[in-house]
Amino acid sequence: MQLNTEIVGYSEARERELPLVQEVKSKAKELHEMIASLNSNQISLKTSFWNLKEKIKQMDEKAYGKCHDYHVEKTATIEVYSKALKKMSKHFTFMQAIHEHVNSAKSVENECKGLKAKLSDGVVLDKSLEAKLIERQGKGSRTIGRTQKERDLKFEESTKHLNRVKSEVLFKRCDLEARQKKVEDVVAEVDSITFKSSMVRESGAAKVQKLISKCEEIVKQFQQYSSSCQWTGMEQRQHLIE
User: Fold this and answer.
1) Mean per-residue pLDDT for 112-136?
2) What is the pLDDT of residues 143-166, one digit of tens each?
3) C-alpha to C-alpha distances, 239 to 3, 9, 10, 18, 232, nearest whole angstrom
4) How many of the other CB atoms lie within 10 Å of CB of 112?
5) CA 84 to centroid of chain Cα atoms
6) Phi, psi of 38 (to 5 degrees)
């Protein structure tokens, strides 16, 4: 009679504990599914991380190429400035020589005027000297006219060339500023992507570690509960045998 009572008590205990066991099994199944999902998410995160890393690498290469192009353009602009400076120096030297030539011609003209004044004041007029004076006056006038015309022409050419150089330099500078802005935008985008990828990697790793710890804790509790159930069953069987 006592044995039957104990058997009935054991059966009732099993029936009472059966929902809990089923719940634990269900949670264990959910945990396995969650772990599988986490593993899949971790693989997806790794794939995204490598894709971001590759994109960052490409952006770095692109930024380096743009920096190199900017350096080349800057060097070319400096060369244009240097060439323009050399040309302007040559033009300045030429204009200075023309100016000295004009001054020399004016000096000759003044000298001729002085000689003519002296001859006019003199009593004796030297025909040959007067003819020479007239000839020198003609040469001086022609020289002055020709020199002034050459000076005006060279000045006009120099002005046109200077305007062309200014326009070219302005265009180069605008283009360089635009290129520099693009390089700065690319570098800023690379920095933003790097920061975002670091945040995603750190956040994903923390979540995965937290879920793994929680899963390990639940599995440990389930194992302890299973061991307790097995130990209780063994004690009851031993008691029945006795």
Assistant:
1) 61
2) 666 777 888 888 788 788 888 878
3) 9, 13, 11, 22, 11
4) 20
5) 30
6) -65, -40
pLDDT tens for each residue of 47-105: 877 888 888 788 777 777 776 776 777 777 777 666 766 776 676 676 666 667 556 65
Distance CA 195, CA 164 (A): 46
Taking a C-beta distance cutoff of 8 angstroms, is the pair 68, 124 a contact? no
Check if the beta carbon of residue 208 is closer than 8 Å to that of residue 38.
yes
User: What structural domains does the chain harbor?
Assistant: 47-198 (1.10.287)
pTM above 0.85, yes or no: no
Q: What is the DSSP string of 121-173?
A: HSSS--HHHHHHHHHHHHHHHHHHHHHHHHHHHHHHHHHHHHHHHHHHHHHHH
At 26, list the tokens: 């269900």
Task: Give the sign of the dihedral formed by CA 159, CA 161, CA 162, CA 167.
Answer: positive
**Single-letter code of the amino acid located at 63:** A
